Amino acid sequence: STTSALFNVPKLAEDGSNWITYKEQTLTAIGARGSMRYTDGRAIRPVPFQAKKPDGSKPMETEIEALDKTIDKFYQKDSLVKQQVFSTISDRLLLRVQKLDSAATIWAEICDIH
């Protein structure tokens, strides 16, 4: 489809020779999905309630559900950004960055490499 074609980014060359254009195309595709804050570290991972809320009170079921939905949304968007990047880098680079904890740290590491 035309929409999916908008998000097609050529693979990053093993030697990084296309880094400048790869970086711009990747960031544009991520931005078009409304997920830029997942590459620059502005997206904050929500913390689940333990037995109590930060103010010491017991969370209500509706609060727990709302927070769970927020946590799910965070991981969904973070995973979309990871997938955008993972699908366009070499296996060697993927093995180097895949264990990092967020899309932002993965993107920062790839930028540091190139």
List the helices and strands and how they pair.
Elements: H1 2-6, H2 19-32, H3 37-40, H4 61-86, H5 91-97, H6 103-113
Helix pairs in contact: 4-6
Structural write-up:
Helices cover 59% and strands 0% of the residues. With 114 residues, it is mostly helical. Helix 4 (61-86) packs parallel to helix 6.
Concise overview:
The protein has 114 residues and is mainly alpha-helical.
Helix content: 55-70%
Order of helices and strands: HHHHHH
Distance between the termini: 32 Å
Low-confidence segments: none
Class inferred from helices and paired strands: mainly alpha
**Rg, alpha carbons:** 17 Å
Query: Total strand count, please?
Result: 0
Question: Overall 3D geometry?
Answer: elongated
Q: What's the assembly state of these chains?
A: single chain
Report the total helices. Answer: 6
Main sheet record: none
Rounded mean pLDDT score: 92
Work out the strand percent.
under 5%
